[in-house]
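Consider today's protein:

***
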Amino acid sequence: MSNIKMGLTIEEAAECTGIGRNTMRKLVEWGKLPVLKVGRKAIIRRDTLERFMSVNQGRNLLNENDVRKVA
């Protein structure tokens, strides 16, 4: 079994993408980035995060209307 996590917390996702934690939280809040909820913790699947990064390349992630939602 590999040591690579399938799911990342918002903090971990922010760290590995370079997107700020607050921006990452906004993307989740806006429904643009789906998460698994475990109590108060939000887990983002690594493959979902990679897909999100691909479809939103060149877009302004601070503008809700410019961000494409991933499923």
